[in-house]
Amino acid sequence: MMRRTAVVVLFLLAACRTTRPPNAEPLAPLTSTNPAEAAQQLALRRSEFRGERSLIRVRLPQISGRGQLHVDSAGRMLMIVYTPLGTTGARLYVDADQVIFLNDFQSTAWRGKASDLGGSLAAFGSSELPMLLIGLPAAGVNDITYAPAGIQSVRLSDVTVNYEPSAYPPKIVAIDREGQHVEIEHLDSYVDAEAVKAPDIPRGYRCCVLPEM
Fold it and tell me: What is the full DSSP assignment across 137-149?
């Protein structure tokens, strides 16, 4: 009986973490009919951006799981990946060139420069990426190819971002860097104006363990 109760609690916890709040404001698709109109509408969306939270599925070379992506109006990002039981498995916080990575599964922590990230996580080392992950043009990025319904692709110095399909809000965002491939599948997205805060490093976490994924 106790085991069954525990399973039910974990199931409800997982459901709560992957469900849109009842009063959340949805993101409206573009009304554009050609790439030029899409570029104009997305530039306006970016200038009026209040913040966004997306329920996602993350696909890395070694792991895949559901999670949340939260980007605020300042461009700060927090990505959370959950375990199959709905508990927090890992957290990635990005603020410009500053990164905090918490491996909650192994109780390790790392804080440093985005340029120090390796493996598939190195794709998140670009300060422009948070906005691109939610389908909005990032400031200072000019190599953007638009389609009638949204961004088609973006080329940064060492990262290529493709949208499958080319739509806003995005469905699947594929990031490629030096042979490493990462996918963020947006399951549900809505407006969230709450500021993204750096996560506290829990006491007892082993420090300075550079993440490898």
Answer: PPTT---EEEETT
Model confidence, pTM: 0.88
**Residue 1 in domain:** no
Measured distance CA(175)–CA(122) in Å, rounded: 10
- Quote the domain boundaries for residue 70: 26-191
b/e code 182-202 from CB counts within 10 Å (16+ = b): bbbbbeebbebeeebeebeee
96-134: pLDDT as tens digits = 989 999 999 999 999 999 888 887 787 787 889 999 999
Give CA angle at 78 (89, 154), nearest 5°: 115
Specify whether the CB–CB gap between 184 and 171 falls below 8 A: no
For the chain, list the strands marked E by DSSP: 25-26, 51-59, 64-72, 77-82, 88-95, 98-103, 108-113, 144-147, 150-155, 160-164, 172-177, 180-191
Does residue 90 fall inside a structural domain?
A: yes
Residue 2 lies inside a defined structural domain of this protein: no
What's the one-letter identity of residue 69? L
CATH of the domain at 110: 2.50.20.10
- Spatial separation of the C-alpha atoms in residues 9 and 126, rounded to whole Å: 38
Provide the number of structural domains found in the chain. Answer: 1
